[in-house]
Amino acid sequence: MKNKLTQQGRKFALQQNIFMFVVLLICTLFIYLFWGMLAARSAFSGGIIAVLPNILFAYKAFKFAGAKATKKVVESFFSGIKLKMALTALLLAFALKFLIVLPMPFFAMFSLVLLLPAVTPFLFKN
């Protein structure tokens, strides 16, 4: 479904998600070089747990636009945020249960990637 009103939001969400993933990869590389493979795997796991739900939210949030679709816009944002929160909790639970992670790099990268959307509006001005 193509909607011209959602194109700008989708473009910004795509830029934001790509930026988050690139920061995740660069930080993981530095962690690997300085602290080794286990720390890098832990950091990557924490970061990817923050990135994946954000991608899903962006897809859900910018599905509808326009004055006639106001109810659908609000519903898609709310369902997107619910899905994002549930997926984040599920992925965190699975990671902490089944993966061997170092807590410091895992939660540091998770927190960093969660904070990046607050910075991206200043970096990607339209």
Structure report:
The structure is a single chain. The protein has 126 residues and is mostly helical. 83% of the residues lie in helices and 0% in strands. It has four helices and no strands. It has helices spanning 7-35, 37-61, 70-98, 103-123. The radius of gyration is 16 Å and the shape is flat. The two termini are 24 Å apart.
Looking at this protein, list some descriptive labels.
126 residues; mainly alpha
Mean pLDDT: 88
Shape: flat
- Largest sheet composition: none
Q: Structural class, please?
A: mainly alpha
Topology of this protein?
Blueprint (H helix, E strand, L loop, with lengths): L6 H29 L1 H25 L8 H29 L4 H21 L3
Helix pairs in contact: 1-2, 1-4, 2-3, 2-4
Summary of the model, kept short:
The protein has 126 residues and is mainly alpha-helical. It has 4 helices and no strands.
